């Protein structure tokens, strides 16, 4: 069970006074002397919540603005997709939805509580300091800084509570950029610091560079934003030795596990050395997750990439070479879905064709729970051994996904991700 949470009423302070106040907070001046600051880690969050801000502004969602992925937000976003003239297969958290919502008139006001709500999945890890950078829709809004103490309480009561604090910096983009100078002094040098960039990597590049440098551990999501920018950041930071985690990569766990289990069968293991074709269908026009999956397969099987090109509009085709010199054809296509996933570009289906010597060809098809594999199931299967599996997907909030990353406590990039992302980047036609 998640711990209860006590949160001190936030106090608005001039930016220059925040550091001194936090120092007094844990020295007995502002807090009960039985409490102490947690000796754990700091978490710095970029929290634009553009879609939520716009939906509240338009009166399509009741406030307050929290920055949390709640069911009401997702429902309102899905309902707004057709109103914005976007395809029904558009993800409710897609950046293009935020842009279209920004073109609609509306002036509804609501309280902004971003950074003041500590999700139980995050508080469970008892961060020492949670700093939220919350850009507002009004680019000229002045900088506001809020400070509060919080204590996650275990079920057996407050006796073993270890407390932390939250700092919220809210304002227009220009004000936030000017306020970056106060961020570094707020991060305890003796504790690890995670930076969660909860938005597209294309926006606010100066802010991103200012807060995300090593040795801070970086959490990003390559499902949102420009694919080239996302893959370049992921590849460059991993190559430089910085600890970087990609939420989009971790969503592939069930796909990787299901594909591996197919070949656990002794009669199919040798077929992996005889793959001739790999097809992946993804939801919409965000290709990164599919490319990461293809890169993982190629890396594990020792394939070398020979070429990659656009095909059929937004599709991607590529040619690999197996260790024995035989060519492997790869094709990734965007497909519309009736009920889009929360995450843009989620894999819909995968087909792997193997032609081992002296036995019938093998076709492996993995399908997501939402279906949509009819295209992959069509044509040329009659003379093949056919293995089909449904991949169970667990849709979690971004807060829970980050919690899982924090629980790992990694101070380096996942070795598999580090090995696969350069190849995924090369698979993307430029």
Instruction: Please indicate the percent range of residues in DSSP E strands (runs of 2 or more).
Output: 15-25%
Biggest sheet, open or closed, and with what strands and sense?
Answer: 9 strands, mixed
Shape: globular
The CATH architecture of the domain at 253-391: 2-Layer Sandwich
Task: Give the oligomer, counting copies of the same chain as homo and different chains as hetero.
Answer: single chain
Gyration radius over CA: 24 Å
Structural class: alpha/beta
Mean pLDDT, to the nearest integer, reads: 89
Terminal Cα span: 47 Å
Q: Low-confidence parts lasting 5 or more residues at pLDDT below 50?
A: none
Features of the shown structure:
alpha/beta, Dihydrodipicolinate Reductase, domain 2, nine-stranded mixed beta sheet, seven-stranded mixed beta sheet, 30% helix
Quick recap:
The chain is α/β, with parallel strands linked by helices. It contains 15 helices and 16 strands. Among the domains are: 52-101, no CATH class; 253-391, Dihydrodipicolinate Reductase, domain 2 (2-Layer Sandwich).
Question: How would you describe this protein?
Answer:
The protein is α/β, with parallel strands linked by helices and 430 residues long. Among the domains are: 52-101, no CATH class; 253-391, 2-Layer Sandwich (Dihydrodipicolinate Reductase, domain 2). The protein is 30% helix and 24% strand. Strands 1, 2, 3, 4, 5, 6, 7, 8 and 9 form a 9-stranded mixed sheet that branches. A hairpin with a 3-residue loop joins strand 11 (304-311) and strand 12.
């Amino acid at each position: 069970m998640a711990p209860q949470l006590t949160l001190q009423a936030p106090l608005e302070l001039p930016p220059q006074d925040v550091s001194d106040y936090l120092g007094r907070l844990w020295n007995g001046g502002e807090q009960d002397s039985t409490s102490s600051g947690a000796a754990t880690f700091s978490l710095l969050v970029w929290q634009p919540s553009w879609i939520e801000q716009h939906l509240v502004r338009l009166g399509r969602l009741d406030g307050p603005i929290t920055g949390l992925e709640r069911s009401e937000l997702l429902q309102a976003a899905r309902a707004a997709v057709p109103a914005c003239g976007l395809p029904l297969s558009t993800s409710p958290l897609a950046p293009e939805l935020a842009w279209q919502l920004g073109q609609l008139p509306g002036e509804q006001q609501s309280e902004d509580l971003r950074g003041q709500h500590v999700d139980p999945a995050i508080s469970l890890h008892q961060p020492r300091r949670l700093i939220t950078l919350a850009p507002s829709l009004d680019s000229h809004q002045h900088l506001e800084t809020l400070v509060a103490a919080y204590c996650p309480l275990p079920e057996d009561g407050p006796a073993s509570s270890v407390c932390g604090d939250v700092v919220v910096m809210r304002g227009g983009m220009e004000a936030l950029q000017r306020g970056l100078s106060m961020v570094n002094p707020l991060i305890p040098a003796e504790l690890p610091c995670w930076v969660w960039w909860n938005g597209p990597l294309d926006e606010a590049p100066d802010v991103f560079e200012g807060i995300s440098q090593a040795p801070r551990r970086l959490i990003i999501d390559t499902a949102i934003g420009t694919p080239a920018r996302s893959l370049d950041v992921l590849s460059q930071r991993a190559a430089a030795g910085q600890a970087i985690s990609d939420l989009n990569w971790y969503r592939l766990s069930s796909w990787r596990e299901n594909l591996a289990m197919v070949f656990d069968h002794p009669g199919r293991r040798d077929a992996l050395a005889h793959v001739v074709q790999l097809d992946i269908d993804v939801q919409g026009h965000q290709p990164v997750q599919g490319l990461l999956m293809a890169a993982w397969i190629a890396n594990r099987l020792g394939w070398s990439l020979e070429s990659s090109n656009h095909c059929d509009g937004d599709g991607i085709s590529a040619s690999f070479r197996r260790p024995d010199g035989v060519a492997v054809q790869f094709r990734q296509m965007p497909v519309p879905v009736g009920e889009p996933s929360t995450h843009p570009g989620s894999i819909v289906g995968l087909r792997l064709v193997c032609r081992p010597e002296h036995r019938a060809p093998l076709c492996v098809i993995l399908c997501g729970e939402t279906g949509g594999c009819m295209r992959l199931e069509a044509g040329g299967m009659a003379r093949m051994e056919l293995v089909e599996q449904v991949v169970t997907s667990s849709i979690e909030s971004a807060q829970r996904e980050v919690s899982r990353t924090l629980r790992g406590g990694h101070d380096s990039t996942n070795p598999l991700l580090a090995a696969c992302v350069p190849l995924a980047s090369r698979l993307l036609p430029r």
